[in-house]
């Protein structure tokens, strides 16, 4: 019988499990504390749990932990990129970044990705599988333990499309913010999506105070479809209508990610069209300099064109900023993460 992924269970689910094992339900809070606060790797370490209970749990369940396969530290800015080994032999990457306001961790939500965005390394090779809530949590726990710091902010912007793994990602968000667990406030979370509109509508109903980051990257269907296949399913107008509903429902300002690609989406005309889309939603545009990815055939917009693009948005009273480029020397920047060690 396949063992239960115990790190993915809520306390109430642990209570049900313990009852099935003939154990008192009050131990669920103790077990949850061992897993998510003390973060043990074996049941034998649960000192206040009777040995007989530990043996039952060990027979029925497994404790998820990630194995550090590789650690790279940027000589430029100290950014750390981890390659984590999963129990089935797959691997994903996450990136720890340090700022004046604390430490931010960019985590992966899938092994691979099937969205096919032309500028992104994470989608090369397609989707292998979704990550479980425990494996999303495990990236935080393992990074904190290895680096000896507390993660203050989490961005779901690593490998994968978070909303393509909807149920596991939402459960992860509720587990990581659980008051009896690690309890990171959800206002410290950003979730990036390429624009799965049906899932954005569902997310609006979850009442999760996260920041939604929409990977827009082009302001019209012709430009966007050329670099983002998802636009053939949900076009620009459909996406913006969905964003308007999300903003109206949650009151949370949306961040629009926009990677500047030379000759694809970086003209003054593109900037004017982008301003018309974003301004009515009071959104923030996060401009991203394209980071090099072998095999894409795409190149970065030159500095003067990028600055002109930003100035046009500012003149149209759109909130805009350039994202800091961290970890480029270790391929840890936006769009550079892969599910393998290459």
Tally of extended strands? Answer: 14
Following the backbone from N to C, one meets helices and strands in this order, namely: EHHHEEEEEEEHEHEHEHHEHEHE
Helix content: 25-40%
Unreliable runs:
335-342
Q: Please state roughly what percent of the residues sit in beta strands, choosing from under 5%, 5-15%, 15-25%, 25-35%, 35-45% or over 45%.
A: 15-25%
Summary?
By secondary structure, this protein is of the alpha/beta class. It contains ten helices and 14 strands.
Topology, element by element:
Blueprint: E1 4-5, H1 11-20, H2 27-36, H3 51-60, E2 61-62, E3 67-73, E4 80-85, E5 91-99, E6 102-106, E7 110-112, E8 127-130, H4 133-147, E9 153-156, H5 166-176, E10 189-193, H6 197-204, E11 211-215, H7 221-227, H8 236-250, E12 255-260, H9 268-278, E13 284-289, H10 303-315, E14 319-322
Parallel strand pairs: 1-2, 6-9, 9-10, 10-11, 11-12, 12-13, 13-14
Antiparallel strand pairs: 3-4, 4-5, 5-6, 7-8
Helix pairs in contact: 1-2, 4-5, 6-8, 9-10
Tell me what the structure shows:
The chain has 342 residues and is of the alpha/beta class. Helices cover 32% and strands 20% of the residues. It has a 10-stranded mixed beta sheet, covered by helices on one side. Helix 9 runs parallel beside helix 10 (303-315). 42% of the residues are buried.
């Amino acid at each position: 019988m396949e063992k239960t992924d115990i790190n993915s269970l809520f306390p109430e689910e642990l209570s049900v499990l313990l009852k099935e094992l003939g154990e008192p339900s009050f131990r669920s809070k103790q077990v949850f504390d061992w897993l998510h606060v003390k973060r043990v790797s074996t049941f034998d370490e649960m000192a206040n749990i009777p040995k007989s209970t530990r043996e039952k749990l060990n027979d029925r369940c497994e404790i998820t932990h990630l194995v550090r396969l590789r650690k790279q530290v940027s000589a430029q800015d100290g950014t750390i990129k981890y390659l984590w080994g999963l129990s089935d032999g797959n691997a994903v990457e996450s990136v720890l970044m340090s700022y004046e306001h604390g430490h931010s961790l960019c985590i992966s939500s899938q092994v691979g990705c099937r969205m096919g965005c032309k500028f992104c390394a994470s989608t090369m090779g397609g989707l292998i599988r979704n990550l479980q809530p425990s494996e999303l949590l495990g990236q935080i726990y393992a990074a904190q333990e290895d680096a000896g710091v507390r993660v203050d902010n989490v961005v779901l912007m690593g490998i994968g499309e978070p909303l393509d793994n909807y149920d596991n990602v939402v459960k992860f968000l509720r587990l990581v913010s659980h008051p009896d667990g690690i309890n990171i406030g959800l206002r410290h979370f950003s979730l990036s999506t390429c624009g799965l509109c049906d899932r954005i509508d569902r997310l609006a109903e979850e009442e999760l105070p996260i920041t939604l980051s929409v990977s827009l990257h082009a302001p019209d269907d012709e430009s966007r479809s050329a670099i983002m296949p998802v636009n053939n399913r949900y076009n620009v107008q459909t996406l913006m209508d969905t964003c308007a509903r999300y903003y109206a429902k949650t009151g949370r300002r949306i961040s629009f990610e926009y990677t500047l690609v030379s000759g694809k989406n970086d003209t003054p005309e593109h900037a004017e069209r982008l301003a018309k889309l974003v301004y009515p939603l009071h959104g923030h545009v996060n401009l991203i300099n394209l980071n090099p990815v072998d095999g894409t055939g795409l190149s970065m917009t030159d500095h003067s064109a990028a600055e002109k693009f930003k100035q046009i948005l500012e003149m149209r009273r759109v909130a805009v900023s350039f994202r800091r480029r961290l970890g480029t020397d270790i391929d840890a920047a936006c769009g550079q993460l892969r599910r393998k060690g290459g």
